[in-house]
Specification:
The chain has 66 residues and is α+β, with helices and mostly antiparallel strands. The protein contains 2 helices and 2 strands; from the N terminus they run βαβα.
């Protein structure tokens, strides 16, 4: 099984930590792939940041389906 975890912000260090946390609880041959968008807010602090994160999240979802 492959699980894609999308960090909605653009902070790569946080994405790495999220990937490590997910991998630590994954079982068997489960592959964890943690990604973050190239464009968007560096952190999600409120509704404004959430809205501006959406295009990057959708782009990452599109890449995963290709």
């Amino acid at each position: 099984m492959r699980i894609l975890v999308i960090n909605p912000n653009t902070t790569q260090s946080m994405t790495a930590k999220i990937g490590e946390a997910a991998a630590s609880v994954a079982s068997g041959p489960t592959e964890i792939v943690a990604v973050n968008p190239a464009d968007g807010p560096p952190s999600i602090e409120g509704y404004f940041d959430e809205v501006f994160a959406i295009p990057g999240i959708i782009a990452e979802m599109g890449k995963a389906q290709a």
